[in-house]
Amino acid sequence: MLQDSITKLLMQAVKNKDEVRVSVLRMLSSAINYEKIARQHDLSYEEEIVVVKREVKKRKDAILAYEKVGALDKASQEKQELEILKEFLPSEIGDTELLSIAKQVIQENNFSAVKDMGKAISKVKEKVGLSADGAKIAKVVKEIFLGATDN
After folding, report:
1. What class does CATH assign to 95-145?
2. CB neighbours (10 Å) of residue 64?
3. For residue 41, what are the CA distances in angstroms to 38, 55, 118?
4. What is the pLDDT of residues 106-117, one digit of tens each?
5. Would you say 88 and 51 are in contact if contact means Cβ atoms under 8 Å apart?
6. What is the mean pLDDT of residues 23-35?
7. Exposed (0-12), middle (13-18) or buried (19+): which is 35, by Cβ within 10 Å?
């Protein structure tokens, strides 16, 4: 599981005196442990990835907020943390491949009306799993339904 590799990497970061990496890995380990306690069971790999994605989103939001107010040093620190967190995410599916899968799912399920958009998004999420962000999937499906891309 992810928690085991985080623990190993944390020990290595402590040895290397990499303070930023130690801080991020401790935070991520804590976040996973809190989620484990909240769910009252050992987390699956998919559940651990959801926790990592949540932390990634927090960093992205913080970067935007810090840049907005001109705190570029804080934004830079958040960017460093973001890069460390991204190491734990599965590789993302390419835009072209995601578009192709979305079109295939829409065609296979005969989704044609805008009211089918939610169902289409769910089916695409099932098909691609953790390899694409939900917002990205929704954007691609919406573009297909509204004709913003070539069909």
Report:
1. mainly alpha
2. 11
3. 8, 20, 30
4. 999 988 888 888
5. no
6. 97
7. middle
